[in-house]
Design brief:
N-terminal domain of MutM-like DNA repair proteins, Helicase, Ruva Protein, domain 3, 2 domains, 288 residues, alpha+beta, four-stranded antiparallel beta sheet
């Protein structure tokens, strides 16, 4: 489940390998996942010989800008099970089954970029900045969780009513947060996922912001979460899953109070919580 942290690490590893390399070809066996005003043959003609000029990230989306005068870019969303792998094809086959690779960029150097996605939830957009802005998901992305300021975070959260977790997962509120980061930051802040946002006091919001930043730093330092399918472009796995405090630890003792971690459903999402450390302010908010 790649989140902001895994996409950031993918970009950091991929950038020195791919920037400046010339594209030879692009192909896909999953056209439903390709979003562009151009048809695939036109995309292939347009990008042939173009270089990857720049990589950048916003939320969970990785942008690959090409050297075309129109500044056309690829935008990649890994969704639930995606990974990007870079290298020569014989090496790449050591890290993923070729049948899971649904987008493939080949370069004049002989190297390839594979978008491996067993569940086929991933998306690749291609277009100019204006065309990208016509895509609702990209257009409505909120400020990035890694760079949002305390005041902006506070202003956004104080305008919200309802349970905390579903709101924090909204990419138009803050871009980049996912199930893992949100469960971990709420545990760190001692706030229940069903805690009503309108009941937060100033100190709660400041603590939640600080915990969000802490969780992001810790996951990046541990080189990401390989909880399901995600791996780095060089094939290495992240180590953060070994350090998680609450996510995916149902039945294990809370490292803070020793009570067993529980699993509930909040806003349709599986959620891990310590019922002792994380309490809600209103009994009514505990109802399903």
């Amino acid at each position: 489940m790649p989140e902001l942290t895994e996409v950031e690490l993918t970009m950091r590893v991929l950038k020195p390998m791919i920037v400046g390399k010339s594209i030879l070809d692009f192909s896909t066996d999953w056209p439903r996942g390709l979003k562009s005003v151009l048809k695939l043959p036109a995309i292939k003609r347009e990008i042939r010989g173009r270089k990857i000029a720049r990589l950048k990230r916003r939320g969970k989306v990785l942008f690959m800008e090409t050297s075309s005068s129109s500044k056309r870019s690829f935008a990649l969303h890994l969704r639930m099970s995606g990974s990007l792998l870079w290298g020569f094809s014989d090496k790449l086959r050591l890290h993923t089954d070729r049948k899971h690779v649904h987008f493939n960029w080949r370069f004049t150097s002989g190297e390839e970029l594979w978008f491996s996605d067993p569940r086929k939830f991933g998306v690749v957009w291609y277009g100019t900045p204006e065309e990208m802005n016509d895509e609702r998901y990209l257009r409505t992305l909120g400020p990035d969780a890694a760079s949002i300021t305390p005041s902006e975070f506070r202003n956004r959260i104080t305008k919200h009513r309802g349970m905390l977790k579903p709101f924090l997962l909204r990419q138009d509120f803050i871009a980049g947060l996912g199930n893992i980061i949100v469960d971990e930051m709420l545990w760190e802040a001692k706030l229940h996922p069903r805690h009503p946002a309108e009941f937060l006091v100033y100190s709660d919001i400041e603590r939640l912001y600080a915990c969000m930043k802490k969780v992001i730093r810790c996951i990046l330092a541990a080189e990401g979460n390989t909880v399901r399918n995600w791996i780095m472009p060089d094939g290495t796995e992240g180590r953060s899953a070994l350090r998680l405090r609450v996510y995916d630890r149902k039945g294990q003792p809370c490292v803070r109070c020793s009570r067993p971690i529980g699993r509930i459903v909040v806003g349709g999402r599986g959620t891990h919580v310590c019922s002792k450390c994380q309490r809600v302010s209103s009994p009514a908010s505990m109802k399903d």
